[in-house]
Design brief:
By secondary structure, the protein is mainly alpha-helical. It has 14 helices and no strands.
């Protein structure tokens, strides 16, 4: 049975609400629609038209998975600095989901949920690699794609990490400034300092940003950890090689390792970077 006081209170509140609605409607008229005269609109269109080809050329300078997507580049820099590859792979819709994720564990869920789309993008990127020098690495990474599709995550992660390491070393030996004064391998700490980079707040040119994008995950993924420290949960070259176990070897890290290797291979093929690989 309805309480009489409650019923009366409801009537009073409803009446008060109706009064408020009427008062608001009477005092707040909708804003008038502003329309510019047609000659001004036509003049603006003529002024902007020459910029369109320039904007299209700038967009074409970006990796294919970014083109025409209006992605949040500043947020992408932050994510790439955390070790997540975003250049060439994954697809733009997956990038948006990764950017919307709250933390590393949420991003791992996105990587697992979107694995089919990511693997398809990796296959497409590898198919676009045409330089015969990279045929062996392309074939190995195509095998990583198949292994990941079959759930062989640990094998895919280890192989992709080694292919990526091979490409990093090939880039280093083709760039003397990355090496020691005697031309020797400098260690991963020096490599981290040598690869192109860009910061979130840097006023970089489009060319500088494009050149740095594929290398931004390097700093995080090349970090070394000491035995007394916990094994990194995110993909890490040192941990993959020297701390094989359940913490480092995960399905999400396998996907990241594959994306990292594919993005580097696709970039050096597209840009024609100087690289020295063993025969």
């Amino acid at each position: 049975m309805t309480n009489g006081f409650d019923a009366r209170l409801a009537e009073v509140l409803n009446a008060a609400t109706q009064d408020i609605r009427r008062a608001v409607a009477a005092n707040f008229m909708p804003a008038a629609k502003v329309e510019l005269p047609r000659p001004i609109l036509e003049s603006l269109a003529r002024a902007v038209a020459p910029l369109q080809p320039v904007l299209e050329r700038l967009d074409a300078m970006m990796p294919e998975n970014w083109q025409g997507q209006r992605l949040a580049y500043k947020d992408m820099v932050r994510l790439m600095q955390e070790g997540v590859p975003l250049a060439w792979v994954p697809p733009a819709d997956v990038i948006r989901q990764l950017l919307a994720a709250d933390d590393a564990s949420s991003r791992a869920v996105v990587l697992d949920d979107c694995r089919p789309e990511i693997l398809a993008a990796c296959s497409d990127a590898l198919a676009a690699v045409t330089d015969a020098r990279f045929s062996a690495q392309r074939t190995l990474l195509e095998g990583c794609v198949r292994m990941t599709e079959s759930g062989m995550f640990s094998g895919a992660q280890a192989l992709a990490a080694n292919v990526w390491d091979t490409l990093v070393r090939g880039l280093a030996f083709a760039n003397p400034e990355w090496l020691t004064d005697r031309g020797w391998w400098p260690g991963y700490s020096k490599i981290r300092q040598s690869v192109p980079t860009v910061g979130i707040d840097d006023d970089a040119t489009i060319g500088q940003f494009r050149k740095a994008a594929v290398f931004l995950p390097f700093a995080k993924t090349l970090e070394e950890f000491r035995r007394q420290h916990p094994v990194p949960e995110g993909f890490n070259r040192h941990a993959t090689a020297h701390a094989a176990g359940a913490v480092q070897y995960t399905s999400a890290n396998a996907v990241i390792a594959l994306m990292l290797a594919v993005s580097v291979l696709r970039e050096i093929d597209d840009q024609g970077y100087s690289i020295q690989l063993h025969a």
